[in-house]
Design brief:
By secondary structure, this protein is α/β, with parallel strands linked by helices. It is built from 5 helices and 5 strands.
């Protein structure tokens, strides 16, 4: 099976870099974007299976990015990262088509499991 292609989107550069590196060390193909606009531009140039998306970002927030991803790439699964105890934004994201949400700080094992489940769902939906 091919590597899971993941786009991690978070405006916190250290967190983004750490998460991308940890996912790559676990045998996935992860890349990072520091903003929603950068993420959408990357998605126009390269195919991803799963987007791990921070909800709170300056400029274009995660829910806006989620809407755009689902509109343009309906089979790409999105996992939201919510912080600051904001479960409401995770629930709103689920209504908008997100696969799931994970509270920050994210447990790597839980996140990897959700990424794998999201990819399986993408494969089933495409077939």
């Amino acid at each position: 099976m091919d590597l899971v292609r993941i786009l991690v989107v978070d405006d916190e550069e250290d967190f983004l870099e750490t998460l991308v590196n940890r996912l790559n060390r676990r045998g996935m193909s992860a890349q990072g974007a520091l903003s929603g606009r950068e993420a959408l531009k990357m998605m126009e140039e390269k195919e991803f299976d799963v987007v791990v998306l921070d909800v709170r970002m300056p400029g274009m927030d995660g829910l806006e990015v989620l809407r755009e991803v689902k509109n343009r790439w309906p089979f790409v699964e999105v996992i939201l990262l919510t912080g600051h105890g904001s479960v409401e934004s995770g629930i709103e994201g689920m209504r908008l088509g997100a696969f799931d949400y994970v509270m920050k700080p994210a447990d790597l094992e839980v996140l990897i499991e959700k990424i794998q489940q999201a990819r399986e769902r993408k494969i089933l939906r495409e077939s």
